[in-house]
Amino acid sequence: MEEVAELGHLLVFAFLFCFAAFMVGPVITDVTMGALCPGRDECSLAIYLTGIQQAVTGLGALVLTPVVGNLSDRYGRKALLALPATASIVPLGILAYGRTRGYLYAYYITKTLTATVCEGSMMCLSLAYVADRVPEARRAAAFGVFSGVCSAGFVASAIAARFLPVSSTCQVAALAAVVTAVYMKAFLQETDSGASSCSYDEEASQPLCIPSSSEELSPKLPPLRKAPSLSEIAALLTSRHEERGTEVQNAAAAPVSHPQPRNAAAPASHLGSYSAPLQRRAAGRCRVAGCRRPLAKLNSSTFSRAAVVTFFHGLGDAGQLNTLLYFLKAKFHYSKNQYANLLLIIGITGSFSQLTVMPLLVPKLGEQKLLIIALTASCGHAFLYSIAWSFWVPYLAASCVILSMLVTPCIRSIISKKVGPFEQGMVQGCITGISSTANVISPLIFTPLTAWCLSEATPFYLKGFSLACAGFATLVALATSICMRPAEVQQPDRK
């Protein structure tokens, strides 16, 4: 695929970023419990500390990720990608220097602060970068390839953590984070779409409004929006657009001082009260370019259901993330090597799925059907984790990610096809922000539930009850996805 070949530097950057970010995953549980509760297999303090970090990170990402996505529409994807690439170095450097109680608290504080702009923003900006480069018809496969490369970085980090000692693992992770930032700065190229271009073809690359004579003044375009307003987001989630091209109206917009004839073409909202000929010309060119018209092609019903699916899937996924490692530690006495083996299985099957399975299945099934299959598999492996009766059952459950890993690429592709090139950063940021909302709520539910289930005070013996609850949250996402309309590739109007 030629379009994917053009993403080479982005894919290398994503691989290195995930390699550095995930390398400490297999060791952080042992490091945390060794510093806070040495010699024990169950530690409520460690569980609550992890939950607090996840909640604060999700709250910060909820606020910052949509803003970062919008800023990338204005200043470019590469300029904003430098933020997560650089910020991720700090906590890894602290963990590489020391792993005692004081350094561990410093790691969690800096990790919480930097993760608000690292985890969600990196994925949001990278997917917007992919959307800038790849046509709509091939975008789902490209998203799958990108996610597969991220999973490959996850696999490489799990292999490194499996064979390196704890101290070397943290040091290699910090070094990899530095290399990631340098590589991104040196080799990644800025995209033409989303930052400086407003066209699909040569006609659309012309100035938006051209005066008919030298006596007419060229209208001045307003600056690009810095962030979506609350009214726009509310309208996006609740209103239903009857026809494609209906714009999200600003509730506080001033009345137009120059009324237009009844047969005049409706002007774009940002052109104000220019003359009717200029308005018709600008409206026609905006239809060609698909530019500067916020969310003009997005069907609100599709977005609302996609938001619900994203939220409940994120709620269940974050619940598993916050619960699984401590559950395995308490029930089966897992250590660093067992964690690494489990994550290795997840990473390998996830990479194979996104690099091979998704490009093959999307053209035949479509994103919606594949999304339903992926959510079904996600429910299945959550419930299988919860009833694990032997140490090998989690390894069997991990193999289900060959399908469950396709949830996020399918959702992103469905939403990406519904908007124009200049809304990619904002919409991907909104979806990431919704996922971050789930990351805020999930620890508030699953952290005390997990601590209670793993303690001696529980009235029934089911240590995996919190994992089962995470599966039920994913089940809600599955039910919502069945009601979604199939994704439709909408082409810009040409006149």
Automatic annotation (TrEMBL):
Its main location: membrane. GO terms for molecular function: transmembrane transporter activity. It is a multi-pass membrane protein. It comes from the Eukaryota. One of its GO terms (cellular component) is membrane. The chain crosses the membrane at residues 7-25, 45-68, 80-98, 104-128, 140-160, 306-327, 339-358, 427-445, 465-484. It is found in: Membrane. Residues 247-270 are annotated as: Disordered. The keyword Membrane applies. Keywords: Membrane, Transmembrane, Transmembrane helix, Transport. PANTHER family: GH21943P-RELATED, MAJOR FACILITATOR SUPERFAMILY DOMAIN-CONTAINING PROTEIN 10. This is Tetracycline resistance protein, class H-like isoform X1. It comes from Panicum miliaceum (Proso millet).
